[in-house]
Amino acid sequence: MKNILFVHQSAELYGSDKTLLLLLKHINKQKFYPVVVLPNDGPLKIELEKENIEVFIAPVIKLHRKMFTPTNLLLLLNHLRQGFSTLNRLHKKYRFEIVYSNTLAVLIGFIFARIKGIKHVWHVHEIIESPKVVSKLFSFLINRKSNFFTIYNSKATATFWESFFTERKNYSVISNGLEIQSNDITTDEIELVRKNLFEVEEEIVVGLVGRINRWKGQFVLLEAFHYLAQKHSNLKLIFVGSTTDNQQNILKELNTKIQKYQIEKKVKIIPFQSNINTIWKAIDIAIVPSTEPEPFGLVAVEAMLASKPVVASNHGGLTEIVEQLQTGFLIEPNNIQELTNAIEKLINDEKLRLEMGQKGYTRAVEEFSIQKHVSKIEKVLAD
């Protein structure tokens, strides 16, 4: 059995968090023994421990621009000392054969593996187009010999990072996967969510699920919905997700625009929900209007597994998930008119919504199962 140290950037349950949870839930425990380090407590830690996976809290060293001030550099050194103390203690106990850094955002796993001479696997979930100095720094780190293998979560992510190199072979593209949900969500449960949480009855619900920030597309969707709401009285827009503590101004700005358009009764912002599968079942049309390329776009797969049509931006990993005119629409990023037109086609055609939703479900089951995802990663870890 191989003992593997998994290092991750957060303890929430968004895209890369959920991907790690599902990997460790389904990985072959007869062959691999995972130990996880997170930067803090949170829902991910709770869910991992439900699976009897050991989780430890330690600084994971996240790279950001503000870390280069004198005060933050001192803090960085202190975090490095604390982090290494925890990792050294764990390594003495488990004698790790692999350090697995889940996302580029964490640096301590790479540094620790290099110092200790342990194989390092980097699972890259990011496309970092700017600032250029950061993308060049990470490309330098990815290409070090001490980084034994790189896993990219999509062809788009691989194309971006591998453009920095020539003829590298120690990497693989492994699409994210999700569990196939059993049909145990009842009509009554869905109706309760629609009535009590969404506050709708017969309305068509347009939904965007994801963290509220500048590039997930909440503002683009709001502009499109503003036009649609003037023509269609039977619509409700639902944003499901939270923002980070240091970006509360974005949430405030979003609420200000909703008030400006006088559509407070037609738009609702709901904090992150743990029962996301029921949420998707209660939504009629899924929107993923990211203004920057999604490295993958797990929410699109979630929506497809709930048999929902998806309108998504035509860049990044989303182009590998949504099939144009089959499982939904791929629209030009930031193009409000295209987004409006695509949503309106689905509003006006219930049969099209159902057909695209069914095709999306079939595609998600065939291409993005957790079994396929885990099997491919196990092969990397077994080498």
UniProtKB/TrEMBL annotation:
<feature type="domain" description="Glycosyl transferase family 1">
    <location>
        <begin position="192"/>
        <end position="362"/>
    </location>
</feature>
<dbReference type="InterPro" id="IPR001296">
    <property type="entry name" value="Glyco_trans_1"/>
</dbReference>
<dbReference type="InterPro" id="IPR028098">
    <property type="entry name" value="Glyco_trans_4-like_N"/>
</dbReference>
<protein>
    <submittedName>
        <fullName>Glycosyltransferase family 4 protein</fullName>
    </submittedName>
</protein>
<dbReference type="Pfam" id="PF13439">
    <property type="entry name" value="Glyco_transf_4"/>
</dbReference>
<feature type="domain" description="Glycosyltransferase subfamily 4-like N-terminal">
    <location>
        <begin position="17"/>
        <end position="180"/>
    </location>
</feature>
<dbReference type="Pfam" id="PF00534">
    <property type="entry name" value="Glycos_transf_1"/>
</dbReference>
